[in-house]
Amino acid sequence: MRFNRELLWDEPVSLVRRPGRCSTSPVVMSQSNFHHLYLSEPFQTFYRWLEENYKSSGHPEDAPFLPHDLLSDHLESNECKVLNTLLSSFYQGQAVPISAKGVVSAYSKIFCILICIGKIDSLPAFMGCDDLNDQHLPFKLNDRPSQFPFDPTAPTFFEEFCHVQWRFCLPAIDANCSRRLEKDYVLPFTKREQIAQGASATISTIEIYPLYNALPSLAVSSYTKAHRAFCIC
Question: pLDDT tens digits for 173-200?
């Protein structure tokens, strides 16, 4: 199996969902209050969970990533307790305009990206537009979705979003040798060991996180799917 790494690889305003359209409903919060919010225990606990659950091969070319099955299990556990706590912390003293079930059903990756870049106030804007859900990720830096929210206090909002999205948007690895992926994709490798190097290629064995392993099963193998090793060059 051959992979070519180049080829594979503020005063914010929140928008509240209204059936059939995107519309606005301001959530006024000072910058100092935002800073306090992200330092609060629920948010700090979630940041720690993210850091503890990123996966990587440890190879310099392989960036950390968060498997979607781990994220889904965490957000959905105990009737979405973690997610409800985070939303309640943000909308403290107000009615929460979005549902936790709505987030986990189609916006869990969006939620994490916004948490990571400090833009959770924009979540209702995304949830008000079907074209901005997880299914449409990753967004292309040179092709901004028309419904992507603008924030005049954060002119690099879209660029920051695009930069962080890759750790949550993993491609399935299959046997399609002609497949081309953007260079920004993070590959779901949990182990990579170099076994040989020639004039034009480096050969390594890799292990792929099971959720993203779409390679055909071997007819004879003593390994489980979680621990099958493959060669790349």
Answer: 988 767 788 889 999 999 998 888 877 7
